[in-house]
Write a structure and sequence with these properties.
With about 150 residues, the chain is of the alpha+beta class. It has one helix and eight strands.
Length: about 150
């Protein structure tokens, strides 16, 4: 009696398929991590510019008559009310950046690290540029602040 040969995969075929799947998974993982870091960078820059625009708008509109500002450090920025930044003020709002992003090359008029929008026009004398840098991507995004208080990137 002749036995029918059942179709099956050989060990070589299985190893080849597993190797191809592992390689494709590795490429996907690398791509998705790069995409996440790039999204973080773009989101943080957009959020920072939105906060600058809000501080500008608050001083321009006369909300709580007074000045509004943003204090910059390498790994965070702080939104504050008033003409000077005071660490002890409880109304300060600190925004921490992800570990992969830093603020660098702060080139504001007068070497300042504070951007203060003066009431009632919302103008600033701390005009200039600063950069958000992502080391894993080796990519920078430049933010520009004009004397009229407008921010762009």
């Amino acid at each position: 009696m002749k036995m029918a040969k059942s179709p099956a995969f050989t060990a070589l075929e299985l190893i080849l398929v597993i190797t191809i799947m592992a390689t494709l998974s590795g490429f996907f993982l690398l791509y998705s991590q790069g995409t996440t870091v790039r999204t973080d960078l773009n989101t943080q820059v957009a959020h920072f510019v939105a906060e600058l625009r809000l501080a500008h708008s608050d001083s321009d509109s006369g909300k709580d008559p007074g000045d509004f500002g943003v204090n910059l450090s390498c790994n965070a920025y702080t939104i504050f009310e008033g003409s000077t930044y005071d660490v002890a003020t409880t109304s300060n709002r600190i925004v921490e950046l992800p570990e992969t992003i830093v603020i660098q090359n702060i080139n504001l008029n007068g070497g300042a690290t504070d951007i203060i929008f003066t009431s009632p026009q919302g103008e600033t004398s701390q005009n200039g540029t600063l950069e958000f840098y992502s080391e894993p991507l080796d990519e920078t995004k430049t933010v520009t602040i004009t004397t009229l208080g407008y921010a762009s990137y």
